[in-house]
Design brief:
By secondary structure, the chain is an all-beta fold. Helix content is about 5%, strand content about 40%. It has helices at about 10, 145-150; strands at about 70, 75, 85, 105, 110-115, 125-130, 135-140, 170-175, 180-185, 195-200, 210-215, 220-225, 230, 235, 245-250, 260-265, 265, 270, 275-285, 285-290, 290-295, 305-310, 315-320, 330-335, 340, 345-350, 355-360, 370-375, 380-390. The structure holds calcium ion (2 copies).
């Protein structure tokens, strides 16, 4: 998804926001728990819309050569048979300069932008850090979407990274290698440049990815898996997750069997770009269940999107708008509570040079808080980049 401004669909100028009825019956059967209040969508500031990711299952895969996890929270390395504690200590990421903003109300501090190898004058979006903190997944577009939105024309501004398909969003990884990020374009990206991909998230083992492919500006959730250590092209998720409305920002539980995402879907039509809600679907007996609204705190803000659940499953983070956020949108969280989630609290508020942020993800050890942020480059121009903050 996109962090900022306007959802991708809007950015692409498609008919994305035109409500269209999903074909067939209502796959979700959910009730509308919406508060009835409208979002602050008309403030003129673009809305964050980024992605999240899904997580695949952490089940043991002895033949993969990958590390496998036991239920005890330890991880076994097949090559050595040695056990390591989970979570591992996330590596300190190579950073760029200190950021003036945003303001953390809890948990983290010292926000920095990431260095030039990750951030460019193009648009970096959809930040998602792997649970072990070694690999940053992100979306990258060469287009300056603020020019598209405000001036209605295409302006390619970002550099052509190796392997990039077209000018729109592709999914990349940045892997920490000493004091550098190694950046790679992934095979999940379609060669057809009419189908941009972004908003990815992965499971704890980085064996399964949930991401969004946009068709005429409308997002659907796709699932990709690794084969021989390499990401393979994905397929649209089966079941009732995808509708004719705009699904976005999928994220997975550590075991990969729970999927959270946002959508403007509701029974009978689509709610529109600024009225998204958070949904959950579970993988059971080989199928993804009919999505339900996420219960509790997460769906209490007016706008809700970009879900992220911590590796231990104890906290639900999202981006939202409400009266307790002194900006257009804030990052919130809610603690696990029974089968749902408890009361919300504001975690981060845009401030200083950071006029908007979203796309939160956190390493399993809680040490590093990654986000995508928006900065202003003068009237009618904004820029998207990825930043990181450290635990206090
Ligand atoms: Ca950028
Ligand atoms: Ca859709």
């Amino acid at each position: 998804m996109r962090l900022l401004p306007v959802s991708l669909s809007l950015l692409l100028g498609a008919t994305a926001c035109v409500p269209t009825l999903p074909t067939g019956s209502d796959a979700r059967g959910n009730q509308d728990s919406d508060s009835g209040t409208q979002s602050q969508a008309d403030t003129g500031m673009m809305q964050n819309q980024m992605d999240a990711g899904m997580q695949a299952d952490s089940s043991v895969t002895p033949d993969s050569g990958q590390q496998t996890m036991s239920d005890s929270g330890t991880m076994m390395t097949p090559d050595s048979g040695t056990m390591m504690n989970w979570p591992p200590a996330a590596p300190r990421p190579p950073m760029g300069t200190a950021l003036n903003g945003p303001t953390f109300r809890t948990g983290w501090q010292n926000p920095h932008t990431l260095p030039d190898s990750i951030n460019t004058v193009g648009w970096e979006d959809s930040s998602f850090i792997s649970a072990d903190g070694t690999t940053l997944y992100f979306g990258y577009s060469r287009l300056d979407f603020s020019v598209l939105v405000f001036e209605g024309r295409l302006e390619v501004q970002g550099p052509e990274r190796p392997g990039h398909r077209g000018i729109e969003f592709d999914i990349y990884t940045g892997t920490i290698n000493g004091n550098q990020w190694q950046v790679e374009n992934l095979a999940v990206n379609a060669n057809d440049m009419n189908f941009p991909e972004a908003a990815q998230g992965v499971d704890r083992n980085q064996e399964t990815m949930a991401y969004i492919r946009f068709t005429d500006g409308i997002g659907d959730v796709y699932i990709a898996r690794k084969n021989g250590g390499q990401w393979m092209p994905g397929q649209a998720i089966q079941g009732g997750v995808n509708t004719n409305c705009s699904e976005d920002n999928p994220t997975l539980s550590a075991d990969g069997n729970t999927l959270w995402f946002d959508s403007d879907y509701e029974a009978g039509g689509c709610r529109g770009k600024d009225r998204r809600r958070l949904f959950v679907s579970r993988y059971q007996n080989g199928n993804w269940s009919a999505p339900e609204l996420v219960p509790g705190g997460p769906n209490t803000t007016d706008q809700r999107w970009q879900p992220f659940v911590t590796d231990d499953g104890q906290w639900f983070y999202w981006n939202g708008e409400a009266s307790d956020c002194p900006a257009d949108a804030c990052i919130y969280r809610a603690p696990k509570s029974g089968n749902g989630w408890g009361n919300r609290e504001v975690v981060v508020v845009p401030s200083g040079d950071v006029v908007g942020l979203g796309e939160v993800s956190i390493t399993a050890d809680g040490k590093y808080f990654y986000f995508t942020y928006v900065s202003s480059e003068g009237p009618m121009r904004i820029q998207l980049n990825i930043g990181v903050a450290e635990a206090r």
